Every structure is written in structure tokens, then in C-alpha cells.
Amino acid sequence: MYYIGLMSGTSVDGIDGVLVKDSNGRLVLVDTYSMAFPDDLKDDIEKLLKTFQIHLQKLGEIDHRLGCCYAECVNELLEKASVNSSEVIAVGCHGQTVFHDPRSKYPFTMQIGDANIIAARTGIKTVNDFRRMDVAYSGDGAPLAPAFHADYLSSTSEKRIILNLGGIANITILDYDKIDVIGFDTGPANCLMDLWIHKCRGEAYDKDGEWAKSGKVDCKLLNKMFSNYYFSLPAPKSTGKELFNLDWLNSILENYPKMKEEDVQATLCELTAKTISDEINKYCPDADAVYSCGGGAYNGFLQDRLSFYLSSAKISTTDELGVSVQWMEAIAFAWLTKQRIELKPGNLSSVTGAKRDAVLGALYIP
């Protein structure tokens, strides 16, 4: 009774795969596997996410190549775990988000990565396209992990915030005093910091936030960034690189030509910490603890800044709750896959703003 969850996020650093076992209705992590995208595919995806312009043939080819990579990740994971594909009920693949705009005149969200190829090359039922049914019911289609967080990480004695620090930051508020779970994207987490350090120093990310720590926050720049309309929107809300990207950052920095590069990085880190903290203080000011997951959970300087703004809450990681920082989202999509196979809702309308909870995902049978 195995399920597999696959996740590739806005950082475009590769694929995380998890093999989980259904034990009396609860998923238990059995094994994991990560693989990087081939350099040429990574370059094509990053170019698409930067320009949002592409020839349709190229888009179709990327869709195909992603499907091949996801299938390879599944097969390598099964070999590593010595598990036969016949023992796996289904694979759940989030796909690669290339655009997300649930607030346009014609709302949509777009993830690519051909699930037909995954099913054909693994011989396993495959679920993907998790987000668009929620959008069809007038929801944002994101975030989806809060439903999993509520099922697995809720407490009757501690008001918890689950904070995912991927390219975009999102929070799940697990408040035992309230019936409805609240969850939404607060804004950028790592995406702008990663883009800036790559532009300036050719590095993929700011390890432990050391470069940001070496700089000084510029309050005028911070306030200018913070004036973006997204930060004043009420929940539910969601966002992505279509808003917070290098072009957005460069357009602001044109007015600050003499600013040191490390000061920009420090200010970007402060923006992440402040926007997260402001939303937590707004929606759950008496939170007992904040548990981080995703790549930003390893950024010690960012964690320090969160501690500064949220001084009354414990700042920790989801490792303390028994769910790995690195594998949280992949496990969430394994859970969403199980929900789809069992025809149970995968969204929370209180989180996404959808008109109803709904079964999510399209099923591909080899």
C-alpha cells in the first residue's frame, strides 16, 4: 500500500520524490530520492519563468522532457527502496508551475510535466493537475499543503504556524480555538534572494543567509518593496514569480543606483521576514510556535529575523514535529494523491477561497 509524491518548486532546483506507506490510514515515510534537472532543461525552465514567452513547440518539448524526468525520479526511487512498481497504488506529481494568476479576468494556474509519460514509463497510475479544480470553483488553487498540515500537524494544546519557505512563503495557521484553517502565500521567501545572489555572485542561493547578514537593511528600499499591492491584500491569496521576479526587483533598484549589493540582499531577507511576521501577527497574534519547512528553514539568518519579529513564539522546524523539512511538500502531494484515489477532498475552501471542498487531480491509468 505505497504512494509516491513528487514535487518541483519555484526554485527550479530539481525534483524531490518520497515513497510513503499507508499504515492504518496514515502515511509513513519509507524512502526518498532527489534528482537535479539536466542543465539544459533547467536553463529552459528558468528562461521561461523569467520572460514568460516561449514558442509553443518549445513549451511542448519542455512538458515532455519534464514528464521523462519525473518518471526517472520514480523509477530511481523504487530501485533505491527495493519496491516493485506493482506495489504502488499511485504517483502524485505536482508538476512545474510556469504561471499562476487566479485573479485575472479568466483565472488560471498552469503546471507542466506530462503525466501520460509518467504513467507509461513507470506502469503506475499517476495523478497530477491538482490545482485547477479548485480554481474552477473560484478558488486560488493554492496553497494546497494546508489541508495536509491540518490533518497531520494540528495540536489541541499549541497554536501552530506551519511556514513553508520555498521560492514563495506560505503559512498554515493551526489554531485550536478556530474551526476553519487559514493558509495563504505571504509573498517571496527565497525567490528574490536566490535571483539576486545568482545575478551578483553566480551562486544558486545564500547559504545560511551569510551574505545577507553581511549587509545592512535599507529602510527606504524596504518600504518601497513593502508598498507592493500584494502585501495589503486580505487572505485568501496566492502569488508566484509572475509577480515577484528579477524584473520587479530591478525596476525598484533603478532608484537606488549606489546601493551595495549585500545591502540589497539584507533588505530582501528583511522583506521576507517582515511580510511573514506581519501576516502571522495579523491572523494569529497569540501563536505559540512557528515551524518552518522548505529550503529557507536552513537559512539561519532568516530564522533569526523571524525570531526578532515573533519574539513571543517558539521558532523551530517541522523536523521537531516528525515531518522532514526537506520532504514536507512531496509528502503533502503523496497525501493529496491518496485523497484523490479515495475520492476525498484535497483542498480547504477556507484556505483557497473556493466555493466548496473538492476532489482534486486528474488520473492517468497506464
Task: Give an account of the 3D structure.
This protein has helices at 39-51, 56-81, 115-122, 132-136, 145-153, 191-201, 210-214, 219-226, 246-253, 261-283, 300-309, 328-341, 349-352, and strands at 2-7, 15-23, 26-35, 88-93, 96-101, 108-112, 126-128, 160-165, 168-174, 182-188, 289-293, 314-317, 362-364. The mean pLDDT is 97. With 366 residues, the chain is an alpha/beta fold. The chain is 39% helix and 21% strand.
Provide a short characterization of the protein structure.
This protein is α/β, with parallel strands linked by helices and 366 residues long. It has 13 helices and 13 strands. The model has no long low-confidence stretch (mean pLDDT 97).
Question: Count of helical segments?
Answer: 13
Rg from C-alpha positions?
A: 20 Å
Low-confidence region ranges: none
Helix content: 25-40%
The average pLDDT is 97
State the end-to-end CA separation: 18 Å
Q: How many DSSP-defined strands?
A: 13
List SSEs in N-to-C order. Answer: EEEHHEEEHEHHEEEHHHHHEHEHHE
What is the approximate shape?
globular
Based on the structure, what is the oligomeric state of the protein chains? single chain
Strand order of the largest sheet: 3-2-1-4-7-13
Strand content: 15-25%
Helix-strand category: alpha/beta
Largest sheet: 6 strands, mixed
